[in-house]
Amino acid sequence: MDPIFKRVSIRRFTEEPVNDETIRQIIRAGMAAPSSKNQRPWEFYVVRDRQILEDLAKCSPFGIPIRNAQVAIAVCYRNKDLKEPEMVLLDMSCCCENMLLEAAELGLGSVWISFAPRKQRSEPAEKVLHLPEHLNLFTVLPVGHPMGNIKQLDRFEEERIHWPE
Fold this sequence. Notes:
By secondary structure, this protein is of the alpha+beta class. The chain has helices at residues 2-6, 20-31, 50-57, 64-68, 88-105, 119-129, and strands spanning 42-47, 71-78, 109-110, 113-114, 135-144.
């Protein structure tokens, strides 16, 4: 469970690059996520182009980490031919959590920049990425070597655990 307790939201990154094989490993972790009826709705766009990163960052009021990263993974989902369309956002959440945990395990940082379900954010970003009609943007995960050393806070709260009899 070490990656769970190492993962923190990282918004500032060094200029050190992240290699393609490391990005593949992070995406592999995402693809290992559980998915309703094994529909695996995910598709991934790996963005290194500075102008695209800048344009994506402008699509969200929380987009500065995208601008700060050397690479970002745009995590998308299919909107057609799904077995359980109402479960897609849950599937995608599991996928992204796996990716964030793998990044932490690899000594990298990331942060979840929400786009879905907010169309005022996702639609402009989908245009930036030139997504085909059958894909929607779920989130963008900027990935990089963390600037500074941020420790995770202990968020355990015993009072939130209930033992009904």
